[in-house]
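Weekly modeling sync, notes
Attendees: S.R. (lead), two postdocs, one rotation student

Agenda item 3: backlog of single-chain predictions. S.R. asked that every request posted to the team notebook include the full sequence so nobody has to chase files. The rotation student volunteered to paste the first one in as an example of the format we agreed on. Action items at the bottom.

Example entry:
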Amino acid sequence: MKKVNPNIDKNNKVISLNGLKKSFDDFDVLRGVDLNLYQGENLVVLGRSGTGKSVLIKIISGLLKADEGVVNVLGSNMNRIAGRELDRLRLKIGFSFQNSALYDSMTIRENLEFPLVRNRKELGRKEIDNLVEVVLEAVGLSQTINQMPSELSGGQRKRIGIARTLILRPEIMLYDEPTAGLDPITSIEINNLINEVQTRFNTSSIIITHDLTCARDTGDRVVMLLDGQFQREGTFEEVFNTDDERVKSFYNYNFIK
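Predicted structure, as returned to the notebook:
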């Protein structure tokens, strides 16, 4: 069980969702979601596949629009900003995709340089090299700098994907199923990395997962999405201390001791 980070600032909401609703055709995915993410916190969002977890973080990052409700990210109302203002805000949000989203035709160095060259045009060669080295060291893969993504394992690609997200020094990290498709040992390494990122880079994170080991080991707080709403909230133990059969069956089926 993870120890709660003492540096969480409950007076500083970096993300605030109120009355969030999203439907696709006749299917109501999110049915009135309220949620706060505090500065320095790792917040885990649990739920079965298809319950709207990924939809939630796509709305937070501006990739989808909510049908109803207020989405406030780092003081900006996501319903009201667009264009360059939205682009500037997105630079403060790191999105770690489930499939790592690396460019197969680029070396690891080139993959990491890409967001810097695109978004930090004022940086010189020496500064770019330094930033690449720092994030590679942070994820423990300095030796891969000249390799291609195809030469790396799934866990290594996941780490490089996180490194590429970190290179712009985001204030918020959004992890979409960070341990999906990984073996148990590699999953533990990714969980540890998520906690290291929180401490070293002072990030606030939302971790979308159905992996209960990931939830237990990374979450300062856990919320559970059921029937389009958050039905349970608290520590990992508090969330699963219930007679609700929907929650108990999820625990019994998924949890790896």
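Discussion: group reviewed the output briefly. Residues 69 and 107 are 42 Å apart (CA to CA).
Action items: rotation student to repeat for the remaining queue; S.R. to check formatting next week.
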